[in-house]
Write a structure and sequence with these properties.
The chain has one domain. It contains 3 helices and no strands. Helix 1 runs antiparallel to helix 2 and helix 2 runs antiparallel to helix 3. The longest helix is centred in the middle third of the chain and has 26 residues.
């Protein structure tokens, strides 16, 4: 069973690596942010799979920390975007 979990973690890491291409070549900031969210969720999934395969209980703490950091990153992106103060974006902001 651990071989399957390690293979699944490798597949998740491969999809995250493909997301790196989108971050580097993304036509818009939104595409880059979505790829960064892929890094967050893919990283959490890979750490949990590796932790389950090796029996490392600390992997859950690392995965929760990565999930929290990914949530803060998306929050910071939204606040830094035009109109991120909660007000709707105007034509001047675009």
């Amino acid at each position: 069973m651990s071989e399957f979990l390690l293979a699944a973690a490798g597949f998740v890491l491969l999809t995250v690596a493909v997301g790196l291409v989108r971050i580097l070549r993304g036509p818009a900031n939104v595409d880059r942010m979505m790829a960064a969210q892929l890094f967050g969720t893919g990283g959490v999934a890979a750490v949990l799979l590796l932790g389950a395969a090796t029996g490392a209980a600390a992997a859950i703490d690392v995965a929760l920390t990565l999930a929290l950091l990914a949530a803060f990153a998306s929050f910071a992106f939204v606040k830094a975007a035009p109109g991120g103060d909660g007000a709707p974006a105007t034509d001047r902001d675009r």
